[in-house]
């Protein structure tokens, strides 16, 4: 009986090792192939952040609003802007921004700046009234901020072109020598 128990113990040990290898080797292989890849736990917290902040919804709305604004600037393209087009684009962007691929990319980017504990703190902040207000106003403020930047750049176009021209001229002189 003792020998059978030992054999069963060995069998279970081997089975456990095989199962652990089967589940962990793909994760280890991914980590080895991309040492910068965030951990599965980090990706899970990133998904929680994205859900809490309505990331996919807000990002898709910003993308569609920018697309619509840019198209309406061109009289020839403005005729193509329609509610069905914008709804289809919003759905496309929502699915894209809510995808696992996007979560992995976001997790990779955020992990360069935030530890997992800090990301969890951000999630807690976004669950507060002020955090929720920031989430709800972010799409509109993003568009307004971009429009302000565009207008400021347009107003100062001559100034920044002079700066760029100075370096182009300097580069042209050094290449001709």
Automatic annotation (TrEMBL):
Residues 105-154 form the DUF2059 domain. Residues 1-29 form the signal peptide. InterPro entries: DUF2059. Keywords: Signal. The keyword Signal applies. This is DUF2059 domain-containing protein. It comes from Candidatus Berkiella cookevillensis. The lineage of its organism: Bacteria, Pseudomonadati, Pseudomonadota, Gammaproteobacteria, Candidatus Berkiellales.
